[in-house]
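Chapter summary example.
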Amino acid sequence: MSGRRFLHPEIEGINRKALRELQNERLRWLIRRCLAKSEFYQEKFRKAGIKAAHIKTLDDLVHIPVVTKQELRDEQVHHPPFGRYTVAPAIDWRELHPSTGTTGAPVNTIWSEKDVENITEVTARTMWSFGVRPGDVIQNGFSYGLWVAGMSTHYAGKRLGCFVIPIGASMTNRQIDYMLNPGSTVLLCTPSFALHIAENLRERGIPPKQLKLRLGSFGGEGGTETAATRRKIEEGLGIAAYDYYGLAEIGPTFASECTAKSGLHWAEDHFVIEIINPETMERCPEGEMGVLVITHLTREATPMLRYWTNDYARYDSSRCSCGRTHGRSPGGILGRADDMVIYRGAKFYPVQVEKVVRSYKELGDEFIIELTRDEQAGTDVCNVVCECAAPDADKAALQRRLQKDLKEELLVTPGIRLESFGTLERTTFKAKRIVDKRK
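The structure predicted for these 439 residues follows.
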């Protein structure tokens, strides 16, 4: 088994025509279920003037209005506790997983027995694709609380015949202890936490070559596919680092890079991937950036039809060099609509600031984008705050270089503030990069 290139060769290497036929068949099944059992979707279709018979293929999906997270929140407020988009009967429910609620009230998601099975299989597929094999010691630094990634990777690790350490997103020094004994070979966590662990390794004087760790996959926030961040993780931990992606409403860990590092692979036998222009609401041509919209094909309990993720990505349907035929998103998630900063007419995302800041050896890994208001001038002020990790550095010269590079990347000139190393908050969870102090 361990010598296989694919975990599921019969589906991961399927030809595109056969995959499309499978998707169309599963889509029609899901539409029938949603309209037979969900008042939420019945109402949505009625308002749009469409019926189940109108949705025969993936091309017809464009007629269905998108579903937003706020819409799901409102649905659960008006129809507590789980809204009317829960399709499976209560006797089939097995697990409840709310979203983290980091940007508002959490949205409850329910898994049936079959959903648990599918989520486990898809996650096992992703883990196999970036090199996890039977006998690996998986240090699971994803949260086991409200953020559900820890559960799905735990289930998948067991499915693959691995030894799982369910440490969760905490105890940085204990994380290092387990890397030394029993000797973890795989690390799963957020990119921010991986950098924090690497920082603590350096402080404890432990060289990465002393560890058995050989690879890691990092999700929950963007950054892993940013060259500077990937390099810092790989050098700091002595591993190969891969990107991971998931959403509680869709699946906690359902897309990842393979060992070719050519973008996030989508499990298109379980999901329909669309990239939508947010201004026209039309599908983008392949390779063009837009908002990622996802439709379930196999979800039983809480299926999503055209879920608006608010994440920006691209889509490529060409065969990957690894041999997989399912579509991918080169570069991963390119930004979040929620995180867009508009400053002096320019629009940029934290991942662009990260790209520049983490390319400097003189700077620490942490940074924030601080937004304030100059009340006297009536204008907004944007400062990039980061840490100087080189005590002997010429800070004035460093600030000038950093400001110049940020201007080239962002097309606007932010202020720069250098703090002492260790000043900014370290996180084991999702890093908060934007601090808005405007009234």
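To summarize the output: The chain has a mean pLDDT of 93.
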